[in-house]
Design brief:
This protein is an alpha+beta fold. 51% of the residues lie in helices and 6% in strands. The chain has 25 helices and eight strands. A four-stranded mixed β-sheet has the order 3-2-5-6, with helices on one face. A two-stranded antiparallel sheet has the order 1-4. Strand 7 and strand 8 form a beta hairpin. Helix 1 crosses helix 21 and helix 20 packs across helix 21. About 13% of the residues have low confidence.
Length: 500
């Protein structure tokens, strides 16, 4: 066996994305709230990046402003654009803290561009700003009370031994989001790991199940419903019998079977079933652990005087940015090589961010405008007039790759006269109707729901019958497709939909 070393040459093609391109794609994919956080982070880490108000930005862009050329043009000694695209940004492990200290040190003798002697805020203005911040904090919503906190407040009013109290608190802390225990009492005792008798554990569970809201502490659906029954409730005995031994039959709408087993009439079972609607199978869900997230649209679309639908970027929530003229002048003053390289990288990073944001706006506007142009019927006549649309169609019109369209619409929302919609709402496939017209899947699902709503509930349509009913509406679908959409829409089977 011969072992040796040798050299060889190979040719291969390899695509590498410049850091600038990667940053542009990341910025494009960010929703509005994430973009704001990204800008705040960059402002904190890069002092060469400045935030300016809209009015000052407009004045700055005037050719009469001496800072205009300095901000928009490269200095003679800075690298060419091609070199910039090939250079990788250096990430700072200390989140820019050392950079900030170094820039403070080398720029301590330079005047502050942010405030002139006439515009620097006074003591009263600073105090007013602090007062507004205090009022905002005072009026902020408190963190909502959790289920566990609510139950523990009640639980401590009971008189019990220390052992029972400790195990009861343990049970409360182990309730799921529905307010139920996912394990049996012996299993809970075993995991608890402390000395406790079965009698003490049962006492603790009984006390927990007496707490408000009724039904908490149950170990299954049946026990949860039984805990909510009260002696004076209508059909109390009937409900207890059905819940205790025939709940599965009731869920699957097997009312004749319950009639044979219990002797209750169908009318009595239906009446008890109606009364059961007042019970809550998920008593813990009334306590939300998270705040409801508000949606901030990235775009708006309005109809102009010519009847055209025009898309606009909503950027009033995003700060206007510029490269600091102070550090551009520092570069022009020809500092030492180390200082110059340090500032140059910071200025370059600021410019990349500003250009990436502008490119994001441009791409997002073009993509959204093309979507609106193709979904004009949706805006003018309602969601039932949406047309089948694929991202590749948008990419072909805008002349970008389909992945760019995907990033542009991801987690983005648009404000329309009909409400706020995610941009992905306008995409979807479809099928061809009997007359050759393209029909979106959303409209097919809507038509399916209409057919089910209009059926005779005493003799509901099977999936095979739904296929025939949809054919009568001019839409041909396979039975498996009908079943798939029925389940996705939460429509029960024909047996479960039957009313006796």
């Amino acid at each position: 066996m011969h072992i040796g070393l040798s050299q060889s040459m190979k040719m291969r093609q390899e695509m590498r994305l410049a850091p600038r391109m990667i940053q542009s794609m990341e910025i494009l994919q960010l929703p509005m709230a994430a973009l704001q956080e990204k800008i705040d982070q960059e402002l904190a880490e890069n002092v060469c990046l400045q935030q300016v108000d809209r009015e000052r930005e407009q004045n700055r862009n005037s050719p009469d402003n001496p800072d205009f050329l300095k901000t928009e043009s490269h200095t003679a000694e800075e690298p060419q654009r091609g070199e910039v695209e090939q250079r990788e940004l250096v990430a700072n492990d200390d989140n820019g803290a050392s950079d900030f200290e170094r820039l403070v040190e080398i720029s301590s003798d330079w005047p502050d561009d942010n405030y002139t002697s006439g515009s620097r805020p006074s003591g009263n203005q600073i105090q007013d700003s602090m007062d507004r911040a205090h009022d905002l904090m005072a009026n902020a919503l408190d963190r909502p009370q959790t289920l566990q906190e609510y139950l523990l407040e009640q639980f401590h009013y009971f008189t019990m031994s220390k052992v029972v109290s400790g195990f009861g608190e343990y049970l409360i802390q182990n309730l799921d989001g529905n307010g139920r225990l996912q394990s049996s009492l012996p299993e809970m005792m075993q995991v608890y790991g402390r000395s406790i008798t079965p009698e003490q554990a049962h006492e603790a569970l009984t006390l927990v199940q007496k707490l408000d809201p009724p039904g908490v502490g149950a170990r299954d659906l049946s026990e949860c419903l039984l805990l909510q029954l009260t002696p004076g409730m209508p059909f109390h005995d009937v409900l207890r019998t059905i819940i205790s031994g025939h709940l599965d039959d009731l869920i699957h709408n097997r009312l004749p079977l319950i009639e044979r087993k219990t002797g209750f009439t169908i009318d009595l079972i239906n009446a008890a079933k109606e009364q059961m609607r007042s019970l809550n199978p998920f008593p813990g869900r009334g306590f939300a652990s998270e705040q409801i997230q508000t949606i901030t649209p990235d775009l708006r679309v309005e109809q102009n005087d010519k009847g055209e639908w025009v898309v606009e970027i909503i950027d009033e929530y995003v700060p206007s940015l510029r490269v600091s003229p102070r550090y551009l002048r520092m570069l022009e003053s020809k500092p030492d090589a180390e200082t110059r390289e340090f500032i140059r990288k910071k200025v370059e990073s600021a410019r990349w961010l500003i250009e990436s944001i502008e490119q994001r706006y441009n791409t997002l506007r073009r993509v959204a405008q093309t979507i609106v142009d193709m979904q004009r019927e949706f805006l003018e006549n309602g969601p039932e007039h949406i047309v089948p649309l694929k991202m590749q169609q948008i990419a072909d019109v805008v002349n970008v790759h389909v992945t760019t369209v995907s990033r542009a619409v991801d987690d983005k929302h648009i404000a329309t006269p009909r409400g706020i919609f995610p941009l992905k709402r306008f995409f979807g496939g479809g099928t061809t109707s009997a007359d050759g017209e393209e029909v979106a899947w959303e409209n097919i699902r809507r038509k399916l729901k209409e057919v089910v709503d209009q059926e005779d509930k005493s003799n509901p349509l099977s999936d095979d019958a739904l296929v025939k009913a949809m054919q009568d509406e001019g839409i041909t679908l396979a039975r498996r497709t009908i079943t798939k959409y029925r389940k996705a829409m939460g429509i029960p089977s024909s047996r479960q939909r039957r009313e006796y």
